[in-house]
Amino acid sequence: MANFYLDNPSLKHHLNHPLMKRIVALKERDYTDAEKYDYAPINFDDAMDSYEKVMEIAGEVIGDVVAVNAEEVDHVGPTVENNRVIYAAGTAQNLKATTQAGLMGLSMPRRYTGLNFPMVPFVMTSDMAARADAGFSNLWALQDCAETLYEFGNEEQRQSFIPRVCAGETMSMDLTEPDAGSDLQAVMLKATFDEANDCWRLNGVKRFITNGDADIHLVLARSEEGTKDGRGLSMFIYDKKDGGVNVRRIENKMGIKGSPTCELTYKNAKAQLCGERRLGLIKYVMSLMNGARLGIIAQATGLSEAAYREAVAYAKDRKQFGKAIIEFPAVYEMISNIRAKLDGSRSILYETARFVDIYKILEDIEKERKLEPDEKAELKKYKKLADAFTPLGKLFATEYANQNTYDTIQIHGGSGFMKDYPCERYYRDARITNIYEGTSQLQVVAAIRHVLTGTYLAQMKAYQAEQLNPELDGLKARLAKLVEIYEQLVPKIADAKDEVYLDFQARRLVESAGHIILSYLLLSDTDRTPEEFRRSAEVYVTYAETEIAKIQKFINEFPIENLEYYKQV
Amino acid sequence: MGLKIIVLAKQVPDTRNVGKDAMTPEGTVNRAALAAIFNPEDLNALEQALRLKDEYSDSTVTLLTMGPPRAADIIREGLFRGSDGGYLLTDRAFAGADTLATSYAISMAIKKIGDFDLIVCGRQAIDGDTAQVGPQVAEKLGIPQITYTEEIQSVKNGKITVKRRLEHGVEIVEGKLPMLVTVNGSAPDCRPRNAKLIQRFKYAKTASERNAEESNYSRLSASRTYLNIGEWSTADVNADIKQCGLSGSPTKVKKIENVVFQAKESKTLDSSDQQIEELIVELITNHTIG
User: Fold this and answer.
1) DSSP SS3 for A213
2) What number is the ipTM of this complex?
3) Phi, psi of B11 (to 5 degrees)
4) How do residues B233-284 score in pLDDT, each as one tens digit?
5) Whole-angstrom Cα distance, residue B190 to residue A347?
6) Which CATH architecture has domain B4-251?
7) What is the pTM of this model?
8) Could B199 and A53 be called an inter-chain contact, meaning their C-beta atoms sit closer than 8 Å?
9) If contacts are CB pairs under 8 Å, which of residues 4-43 in chain A contact chain B?
10) What CATH code is assigned to A171-281?
């Protein structure tokens, strides 16, 4: 009997961020839906009250059902019979409970039977779900594919598919192939137009498809014969009811075992084009991936939360040398670092979600009416911030999930290595988060642009300019010093005008930016809810200073010609 | 074929998590110290009713509860999970009722509701554990009853088929509508509260609640009549005051004692086959296992 929303005050803190006032007003179009739908809010307080109540429902279902099933789902996993995936019994039960609770289609507009919630509460459900069962959180977060379908599909497609997602049908995004992983431009799955039946036909193989036997698939396929790059790819919707896609096998994975990872064969599968031809990869999948990356930040944060709780519980309970091990500095330092990294991950998760919310809702409004100049500027600003924060958040939250689950096992000692405690599951589950939806290395590639163009620096300055409680002046001054160092480091690399050298040092610059931004976010959290975040702000700033000192030394003392020692023949 | 279903539910103190302050020095339940919850087996009952509603379109599920004004929570909780409406039977004159007076009041309220096909209620409430109210209501209404239900398997052509969970197995029985069934805790758990329904019904209030707190949302109830939770007094259900509450209750609590188990029920055995065999025989004989 646990409620994963009510037992975690930091969720309420993030749900009630001041920027929500703007987000909700935009999302609810000044509360006009209330005339048409009796479950629509009549004002801001009403909307927030509804989010709160629905988060409570989600917290209860996730705590009482998903969390309880997690261990067995991890052991049993899904199976394949007659080319179809059969979920573990617990997974099926989870899907039933979350559907009954009306939590599917959380962010979809009401006219398609959704709840019209912003991304912030949607992401919060993923955060909670991952704390319970990271494998299930994949199936859960994939409903976000509906967002892409909503954004780029035509009205008929929206009307036929979105209500089905709201009613509990699952989705998948079929992108990767045996020879197209990080490099999606190499996708070969063939789409040909079937004149006789006025539809598209898909033929080929997809690999590593999460929830590959979903009811509704978004598929990236090559529609332009003779092309070799991303511009020949389009996005398609495949409806499982039409048949033609079989599950050849599911992967035997290290973690997230409840989430079926499928190899799919397409044999003349009927499909419909989503959006325009040739924009599949360059526009739609980029949007899809950004949403998915936000989902992974949430997944990683949920895993860190689970690890933190497990670490504290064990360290309080376990007695050695006559006292609980949590009383030893070596252990409590680890726990404080876990907590600080967890709080930092969560802060950037919701900051990013808010940025995404504002720009996406404004884009949606733009379909209904012309935006005012200030709204246009607002859209541009937040889109850029979302674009900059998404890779940074993914890089940090997923690396921290790995570190945190690793340290939690360490705190458990030999017991952590056994299957008796859930920390070994968290550790295995976390390992994929910094690999899929773009490896950490690729997040650096996406983020370095914002180091060089100054997006991060401008945002650091904006945070620095915020009025906070004077008690935080000391920490703020320390952060201002870190910003100075960052400002020195960036030109040092950029001015060398050497692409390879830049690639070599990129991660160090991106990490410096991330440490500073996470620190500022924790400061702002402390300003609003000191009792919850003060310790983490102190611990994280100290950690950031140490990490940046290391980076500073490396960059300052590294002769560019030493790159030769690193190159592999 | 739509069914008219009435679910009887009770708000009870959460006696499952009892702390030190659960009893007053006088030996009565300290209600202030315990959270008020939906009686667990009544939730199992509600789920059975909602499943029938899922299966037979046009069915309605109406909740009926008796209690203090705050028991309106029970009606809201039902609305959040899928019931169509409900009535709160509340009046000082109902206070102190034993099972006889309770079943009288409830049966009068059911008569006031009028038409129904099926009444579903939990086997018993966790505060009293009597399991008497359901059966007594059936008697007072002059309808048949099926107790210990684990699953309502079907309702067809005026007949209901029910799986009963008994001590040594299950029994499938059939009966004629209208019928009252009481549901066991072994029946499936109730579905969760629903995100859309909680937003639709969160401002559902009884008239007294609405009068007590004038809010921005009060005006909603004028255009959305389903936000009005029915609230009935003794007079509303034409109840004879003498048969209600304390005056209608022949059961008088003479004394309540806290029982603390003194002896530790443990035994020490060695690992010999003989001792283990003796233990097995003992456990089978006293029906702990087998």
Assistant:
1) coil
2) 0.91
3) -85, 130
4) 999 999 999 999 988 899 887 877 777 767 666 778 888 899 888 888 888 8
5) 35
6) 3-Layer(aba) Sandwich (3.40)
7) 0.92
8) yes
9) 38-43
10) 2.40.110.10
